[in-house]
Amino acid sequence: DAGVTQSPTHLIKTRGQQVTLRCSPKSGHDTVSWYQQALGQGPQFIFQYYEEEERQRGNFPDRFSGHQFPNYSSELNVNALLLGDSALYLCASSFLSVETQYFGPGTRLLVL
Amino acid sequence: SQQGEEDPQALSIQEGENATMNCSYKTSINNLQWYRQNSGRGLVHLILIRSNEREKHSGRLRVTLDTSKKSSSLLITASRAADTASYFCATSWNAGNMLTFGGGTRLMVKP
To answer: How far apart are CA B47 and CA B36, in angstroms?
Structure first.
């Protein structure tokens, strides 16, 4: 049983570009959450998807958007990249009714 | 913004010693969880304690929760070099809700 997978593992972009990160949840999980982790800090919640709808959103600008597909996989899109968007982006999956979230290995994004 | 703070920010101990990390949070919670992160990779869930529980054990891990002080502690007994990692506490209102993380404690266990 595969755990949470994310792609790509690393990505380098330049300011102003757009990026799409992908996540496949643990088998059977119906909820996907995205977190941003800056170097040396704890993860910060971006948003959560359930039944293909954005269910909760953290304090992130509209440049951050997402999508969930019928197979529960998810994408995170970031437009007009800024240097400050450089971080580790973590995807976590869970059942909506259960507290524990399972994290993927993350995508490390570097914006130059 | 972070929910709270972890203390200490960094901890260095010898193999075999116990490691204690503390976490404080600001708002009412339904549960508090501890996660481990190795070398900036994904987080691994360690243990969950609910707001109506005071103490929980899992193997070499012991977690306490004091809701009156809005604080929790994680004790790792008989530490091993493989325990070297960053440890984060995370709180949430309820199942299905976002996790709010602290800043983490970086633990180094020297062989």
So the answer is: 10
Q: B33, A99 in Cβ contact below 8 A?
A: yes
Helix, strand and coil percent figures for chain B, each rounded to 5: 5, 55, 40
C-alpha B58/C-alpha B34 separation (Å) is: 12
**Considering only CB atoms, which chain B residues are within 8 Å of A98?**
95-96
Whether B68 and chain A come into contact, CB under 8 Å, resolves to no
**Contact state of A42 with B45 under an 8 Å Cβ cutoff:** no
* CA distance linking residue B42 with residue A57, whole number of Å: 21
Considering only alpha carbons, which residue of chain B is nearest residue A32? B96
CA distance B111 to chain A (A): 24
Quick check: A24 and A4 in contact, CB under 8 A? yes
Cα(A57)–Cα(A18) distance, rounded to whole angstroms? 20
Strand B61-66 with A102-103, pairing? unpaired
Picking from B30, B40, B101, the nearest residue to A88 by CB comes out as B40
Render each residue's pLDDT in chain B as its tens digit; 111 residues: 455 688 899 999 999 999 999 999 998 899 999 999 998 788 999 999 999 999 999 999 999 999 999 999 999 999 999 999 999 999 998 767 789 999 999 999 999
Query: What dihedral do alpha carbons B6, B49, B78, B13 form, nearest 10°?
Result: 0
